[in-house]
Amino acid sequence: MTEHPAFEFVGMTACRPRTQNNCPEVxxxxxxxxxxxxxxxxDTVVTMTAESWELFTRAVKAGEYDATA
Length: 69
Prior knowledge:
The protein is built from one helix and four strands. The protein has one helix at 50-61, and strands at residues 10-11, 24-27, 33-38, 46-49.
């Protein structure tokens, strides 16, 4: 398994206190890297550049990944 830098993951406000069992968590404490994981699978970490994260979040906000559509 690949070692990850010391990411400091933060859950969404809606998940605090942990009223949900599967919350997305994001870490932005490593310069130039954004790490993303599901709280139910903390060993599976997706990383991307800050620029890619910005494009991704913009697309999500615009509804491009609407799972209900």
